[in-house]
């Protein structure tokens, strides 16, 4: 189910005016016509159904009208309401973090897109021993705007209700400081090419009660150095995981690791 993420709530009459990049997205990607139904993800997280009321080709604007029944949260879509997200969080819904050691920029974009589609809450780029200098420099430039656009497009394409956030690039020490600030019950999985763990994620998760946060730590193209693995595993809430089988590229390993963890949880 696709959705359109809007920056402002509908006006008092339920109207939403779309222009700029969102206009091009609706016309060129979704190819909407007058009368089409469209799901809107509002700034407050609510999912509302709307109708394409008017398309102004000359001014490049589209007028959307929120359907009356969605004011009562009667959704005709399969999207998740913000209230449901909060209720799930309070009842034990798990929040996911991805600590991705910096690969090449193009690979990072793919990882960010896929992690967003999987419902990762926080993506933390980490400067690692094997990260290329060009990758670090790229993150210091105006890369944030492009990444935010990738996240928005991935959420709209997948219908993810999770407000995925790409945090600033940090060192491994700073990344662990962020991880240690998480107060609720947590566990993190360090994906290792070496046989550092047995890969039984389900058994490891079962050792935690009232689990609220899960982290996945993935290396760059060269993986994680022995010193980095040693430093990470000094944290009592981080455990090593080794998946037997083929050696995966870093962009494949991130998606594979996320999927394996979420499957074990569910």
Features of the shown structure:
seven-stranded parallel β-sheet; alpha/beta; elongated; five-stranded mixed β-sheet; 12 strands; 266 residues
By DSSP (H or I, 4+ residues per run), the number of helices equals 9
Total strand count, please? 12
List low-confidence stretches.
70-78, 85-91
**Gross morphology:** elongated
Please tell me the overall pLDDT.
85
* Percent in helix: 25-40%
What class do helices, strands and sheet pairing give?
A: alpha/beta
The fraction of residues assigned to DSSP E strands is 15-25%
**Termini separation:** 21 Å
The major β-sheet equals: 7 strands, parallel
The run of helices and strands is: EEHEEEHEHEHHEEHEHEHEH
Compute the gyration radius: what is it?
Answer: 20 Å
Would you give an account of this structure?
The protein has nine helices and twelve strands. By secondary structure, it is an alpha/beta fold. The strands form two sheets. Strands 6, 7, 8, 9, 10, 11 and 12 form a seven-stranded parallel sheet that branches. A five-stranded mixed sheet has the order 1-3-4-5-2. Strand 10, helix 7 (201-206) and strand 11 (213-218) form a beta-alpha-beta unit. The radius of gyration is 20 Å and the shape is elongated. The protein starts with a strand and ends with a helix. The relative contact order is 0.14.
